Amino acid sequence: MTWSIATPAVMAAFLASLVEVVEAFTIVLAVATLRGWRSAALGTIAGLAVLAAIVLLLGPLLNRIPLHSLQLAIGILLLLFGMGWLRKASLRAAGIIPLHDEDAIFAAEAAQLGQYRRRQQTNLDWVAAITALKAVLLEGLEVVFIVIAVGAGRGLLMPASLGALAACALVLAAGAIIHRPLSRVPENTLKFGVGVMLSAFGVFWTGEGLGVAWPGQDLALVLFAALFLTAGLVGSALARRISVEIAQ
Amino acid sequence: MTVLKDVVAELIGMFLAEKRLTIAVLTVVTMAGCLVDFTDLDPLVGGTVVLFGCPILLIESVYRCAKAGTS
After folding, report:
1. How far apart are CA B31 and CA A111, in angstroms?
2. How many beta carbons lie within 10 A of that of residue B21, not counting itself?
């Protein structure tokens, strides 16, 4: 394991997990605030258990796939996923689509649970627990994919998992202290950065899967990241110019 | 059942955020694969196609979306 490739893998897993865990935490907090921590904890634990089962099921399967095929498949998926994040982050930075608002999401979830409360009293704890489960499961799926994608190609699953776990611990610690949605996390900047890193990994693995020997080997990732960063910034600047022109 | 449906939708949405961008990226990767497999060119040429093709596609996708005014 070389630090030049382990560091971006761990960083990508950490930052991406930070974004996803903040989103899941907002919904779990809404459930806990309205229905108490029991339902929220139940749903969260169930969600984490399903995610763990997915990892345990997929992990051994990945070892059976030939390395080049695995790198190519993961590379293409990373390209699609990373460029999707980068595209959205560029559009958000340009003001074309609204920024993710954790306070608004918290209010919307609370309002939805309030509606259930008025309609059906008895099953509410289940509704609350399933809401928490869904949040953990859906946001966690992206974390699982990122950890597998940045880790599986070069035997970095463990460091990438540790990066994701560190993000979970950080969000939980911050959430326990402030007890409110973590609305001050610069989510779009993080998504922009993670989109850049994942896209760079995507090109790297796709190339390796196709049999390309990248000059500079792992260090080529830095150049790839710089290219995607530039593309994201150029795209965002162009989009901002268009939105200003339309506004005038 | 709703949870399962949401999970499937999330999985699809993770990789197919924008149809045109997805198709374009897959086309570029296929082109690169063809260059590597069916020509005598250095595989690095195929890698370069992906390396420069994808950022260009990204800029085009953001630009097009901004022009349309929707995501």
Report:
1. 49
2. 22
Q: Return the domain boundaries, chain B.
A: 18-68
Instruction: Supply B21's token pair.
Output: 């961008």
Contact A134/B6, CB-based, under 8 Å? yes
Q: Which of A153, A144, A160, A143 is nearest to A206 (CA)?
A: A153
Instruction: Classify B39 in phi/psi space as left (phi over 0), alpha (psi -120 to 50) or beta.
Output: beta
Of the candidates A46, A21, A57, the one whose C-alpha atom is nearest the C-alpha of residue A163 is A21
CA–CA separation, B69 and B71 (whole Å): 7
Lowest mean pLDDT among A16-25, A74-83, A226-235: A16-25
Nearest residue of B to residue A201 by CA position?
B51
pLDDT for A112: 72
User: Contact A134/B11, CB-based, under 8 Å?
Assistant: no
Provide the ipTM: 0.90
Neighbouring CB atoms inside 10 A of A209's CB total 23
Q: Give A180's Cβ-side CA count (13 Å radius).
A: 7
| pTM of model > 0.80 | yes
Domain boundaries, chain A: 3-241
The alpha carbon of residue B70 is apart from the nearest alpha carbon of chain A, in Å, by 7
Quick check: helix, strand or coil at residue A203?
helix
Q: What is the pLDDT of residues A36-51, one digit of tens each?
A: 788 888 888 988 898 8
